[in-house]
Amino acid sequence: MAKHFDILVIDTPPAAPEWLTTVMAEADLVLIPVRPSPHDLRAVGATLRAAREAGSDFAFLLSQSPRAKVTDEAARVLAQYGKLAPVNAAMRVIYAETAATGQGVTEASDPKAAGEARELWDYVKGLLNG
């Protein structure tokens, strides 16, 4: 794969099917988005186990996160299990709008969402480049 791609992004289902560990084992980095809710924090356990079994470098990303105490608490919990991206992908309407238009948030008219995306990309690049 490395001969053909500089970066390959695979979006997996929000579960841990049998093949997930195999895919993660080939990855340079596994980014695990997690919504800051008790249900999502419980559900991420299977994905975390798969990443650990694969021996993958991984980091969590809080996504669809409101400005609320639950987001801060979720960040504390996730940080106990691995790296946590220093930027949260906030819950914003622009994500649904850009999905409908085929744009990315950096192309749209929401400077906060674009800033989050750029900060996240900088963080991911830093992890990939060591």
Write the layout of secondary structure elements.
Layout: H1 20-26, E1 30-34, H2 38-54, E2 58-65, H3 69-79, E3 83-84, E4 89-90, H4 93-101, H5 111-128
Parallel strand pairs: 1-2, 2-3, 2-4
Helix pairs in contact: 1-2
Q: Provide the residue-averaged pLDDT.
A: 90
CATH class: Alpha Beta
Number of DSSP strand runs = 4
Residue share in helices?
A: 40-55%
The CATH architecture name reads: 3-Layer(aba) Sandwich
Strand percent estimate? 5-15%
Structural class: alpha/beta
Number of distinct helices: 5
Domains, number: 1
Low-confidence stretches: none
Question: Your description of this structure?
Answer:
The protein has a single domain (21-128), classed as P-loop containing nucleotide triphosphate hydrolases (Rossmann fold), CATH 3.40.50. The two termini are 20 Å apart. The chain has five helices and four strands, in the order αβαβαββαα. Strands 1, 2, 3 and 4 form a four-stranded parallel β-sheet that branches. The mean pLDDT is 90. The chain has helices at residues 20-26, 38-54, 69-79, 93-101, 111-128, and strands at 30-34, 58-65, 83-84, 89-90. InterPro entries: P-loop_NTPase. This is ParA family protein. It comes from Paracoccus cavernae.
